[in-house]
Structures are given as structure tokens and as C-alpha cells.
Amino acid sequence: MTLDIDRLRAETPGTRNRIHLNNAGAALMPAPVYEAVKDHFDLELAIGGYEAHARARAAFERTYDAIAELINCDRREIALVENATVGWQMAFHGMQFEPGDRILTAEAEYAANVIAYLQVAKQTGVKIDFVPSDESGQMDVAALDSMIDDRVKLISVTHVPTNGGLINPAVEIGRIARKHDIPYLLDACQSVGQIPVDVAKIGCDMLSVTGRKYLRGPRGTGFLFVRSDFMDKLEPPFLDMHGAEWTSMDGYEMRPDTRRFENWEFNVSGVIGLGVAVDYLLDLGIEETSARLCELAATAREKLAQVPGISVRDIGARKGGIVTFDHASKSAEEIKAHLATHNINVSVTGLSSTRFDLEKRGIEAMVRASFHYYNTEEEIDRLIEMLNEL
After folding, report:
1. Sign of the four-CA dihedral 134, 156, 289, 387
2. What is the Cα–Cα distance from 282 to 30, expressed in whole angstroms?
3. Chain mean pLDDT for the chain
4. Among residues 349, 361, 307, 330, which one has the least CA distance to residue 24?
5. Residues 213, 193, 312, 155: is their CA dihedral positive or negative?
6. Could you tell me the pTM of the whole model?
7. pLDDT tens digits, residue range 189-244?
8. What are the distances in angstroms from CA 327 to CA 278, 331, 366, 390?
């Protein structure tokens, strides 16, 4: 299908007065998502929270089915959580590590994940090894394969890092994980909704996602995928009466599905909004939306490279919708502030986000412009115009 950009922008009120290039932070919600969230809040106001949840049960449950359709899994392999970090932490801390175990990860790994690795290393004595990048900047899969031994207990990788444009080779990493029968955790916080993601093709055992980024869902939503035949190898870091049933005075029984990683309380309106957002994307087609946003980013890279003083800092054999750059004399924060005065949203990414990668490249901070399918070529030209003012 051909995307009707005028219609999509009309359904995205945030595009009317602002150029939003911070989609890797939080994308603009489409009107149907906002209306779904608002309608449920109105229902809670009118009849009460529990009663509203009961009445909206079908819409709530649809979210599991929509997500399962999008990433190609069974609905019983999905847990709805507050955000990608919660999902990722539930999976990671569900692993059982011992002294001498090894965790293999990427050089461009996100700070939140690395901090968790460091915490577990401090607690248990595991060793964290960063797999070298190849000449393009992505994880070197041959190096990964050569680093495998019987002490490796987890391969954990960020699919699309927070900066640099990079898309790590998730499928190739999955083949190596399967060959050696090593658990594989994929942080897909910025890939699901941006590019097609098929957990069966990737071969990951666990995958975490947020709702607010490329899925265009509400903040405070996310999900965790755990492959059904891997689920019993994890021990949820905490359980409550939603994830398990108290079956005797000294016993309990966990749920038979991935919802054992959920807890009792939900932002029901947010979950419903997330389901509407996923259905909105399914109706458009992830292949079409991904192709457009990646093309916009590629165009931006070409035009940015022609701006005096600007250096594009993207890496990777395959690049997505995130574009990073810096300036010879202006700081990233100064550029962000300058663009904000002209109603252009970008963000700043720096050492604290991907320290290993940026220290290696000698970069302290970059401007991040992240594109979505509702952005336009005219918006790119406006960005370039404002940067030329520098």
C-alpha cells in the first residue's frame, strides 16, 4: 500500500505546530490512540476503575493479540509491563548467574543494561565481555562466535542502540545463540515499530519493548516476550497474586504463561491505548512505514553532511531512522536549544548513554534527530535551514 501522509499527519495533531524529530524518545500519538486512552479514563470517572476494566476487557485483551501478530508469537508469550526497562529487568534478573559465568554484549550497549550487568557482576562475580564491532560499527558476529565457551550464560544485545543509526544484526546473532544453545535477550526498545521484528526469525528467547517510541503508544506502557519453551528456565524476580496463585499455607503455583512476569495493577487505559497503537501500525503495514522512515533518515544524513561544521556520526552496515551528528564549534545542547526556538524537537545523546562506544570513538555528545513515517521531506529542509543559521 501507499501511505497517505496527509491523512496520517491530520491524525497526528502534534505535527501541526511543531517538527517532531524525537521519535526515539517518545513519538507523537495518533488521535485514535489518544481517544482510546481518554475514553477509558472517562469510563473510569463515570463508573469506577474495576468496573471500567471489566467492561473494557475485550479491548484490554486485544492488546496481547495485536502484539503477538506484530512480532509473530503466541499471545501467551507476552507480558504487559510498565515500560521496556521493567520488561528487560524481569527477564535479565530472572536468570540465575554464578561466579565465573560470562555475559556477552555489544559495544554500543545501552547504559541501563550495562548498569544491570555491573550490578549482577558485583553481586555474583559474573564477567561482562563486550564483543568487538566490525568495520561498519555493528556487532561482529564472527567475533561473537569465537568468544563462545561453556562459561557464557547469556548473549544480551540492544537491537537498535540509542544513538548512531545502527541496527545490530539480530538474526545472525540469534543463529549463533541457537547453535551454542545460549539464552538470548534482545532489547528491542527502539526497533519494534521502527523496523519489522519477527521473534521466530530472530531466535531470541526474551525481548523487551516500550510503547512510547516507534509504536506511538502512551507513556508508561511496554511488553516482554518470553519464548514458551524457555519460560520455565527463568525465575521471576518477584511474584504477586497475579503472577502466581497461593495454593496452600506454604505453597504457590505460577501462571502457566508469560503473564507470570506481570503484576496485579495495570494502567488499563494505557494498555488499551497500546493495543490501538499496534493495530494502527498493523493496518498501515510495518514494511511500508519502516521503508519510509528509513528513507527519510537517509535523506537527512545526505543533507546534513553538506552543512558547514556538521559531522554525521552514524555507524552500521544497516541504518534505521535515528540520525546523530555534531558541530565543530557548537555544543549539542546549544544546537538543541537553537532548534527548539524554531519548534523543532531533537534530543541530545552522550557518554552516559553508550559510554563504551562513544569513548572508543572519542565523542562526548551528539544531537539525535529520530524520524518517523509521518515526518516529511519539507521538515528535513527546515531542519537544514535552521542548522545553516549556525
Report:
1. negative
2. 14
3. 97
4. 349
5. positive
6. 0.96
7. 999 999 999 999 999 999 999 999 999 999 999 999 999 999 999 999 999 999 99
8. 37, 7, 8, 9
